Amino acid sequence: MTDLLNGEALPASHPAAVSPTEWEAAWRDMLAAEKAFTRERDAMAARRRRMPWLAVDKDYAFEGPDGRISLLDMFEGRTQLIVYRAFFEPGVFGWPDHACRGCSLGADQVGHLAHLNARDTTLAYVSRAPQPDIARLKARMGWAMPWYTITDSFDADFGVDEWHGHNVFVRDGERIFRTYFVNNRGDEAMGTVWSYLDLTPLGRQELWEDSPPGYPQTATYKWWNWHDNYAAETEPDRKWVEVSDAGEAAFRDKGADAEA
Fold this sequence. Notes:
The chain is an alpha+beta fold. It has helices at about 20-50, 70-75, 100-110, 115, 130-140, 155, 195, 240-260; strands at about 55, 60-65, 65-70, 80-85, 120-125, 145-150, 165-170, 175-185. It folds into two domains: about 55-195, Glutaredoxin (3-Layer(aba) Sandwich); about 220-260, no CATH class. The protein has eight helices and eight strands; from the N terminus they run H-E-E-E-H-E-H-H-E-H-E-H-E-E-H-H. Strands 1-8-7-4-5-6-2-3 form an eight-stranded mixed β-sheet.
């Protein structure tokens, strides 16, 4: 293991510099492998959407900024819920000024929640720290996600009492089901709307996805919006539909040329 280079010379073992033709050939080889990986990733997400569901029959209680809430309340009326267990509490490195460094790095990556919410999905963080400490931490770090205090055995029951992780839930009316769980290395790349939605039972809800019959799906790209405009727009803007249609057609033409 070596320290960071900090502007010093690269190690002699770095890849060779080649001609433009050789570089193009190497890139095309890599592109083929990356496309295969993308297809495998999409297939894995499709498999997640077919995972069996586990009923959550226990009533869990949390403390929020406005008082006591239930797991059902945490959905905020939406169908899907992703709960990340962040370590911020007495005994954790950084307390009381900071949450765990790894959990904090992850929190810094969370994208604007409006895009997740537009897909009927809520993201929430939970810790054992009291609400005043959570509010102080969020204000200091500039984090906007809802963040609740665990008050019972939720963390132990869902495998996040000793290590961070994302649990995914879906509700059918007032019935709640656990549909997925990811931690460790699978947990470190979370933050984009796509990484979150690919964990959920309904997925990205776009037409190209391999989902069970009857699952909600809308046209690809068309639902995308500015984060402050979802509530104002119930249907895609016609001009945006034209722009996205043209872009999708161009991508498809390039893809056909590449495979020819």
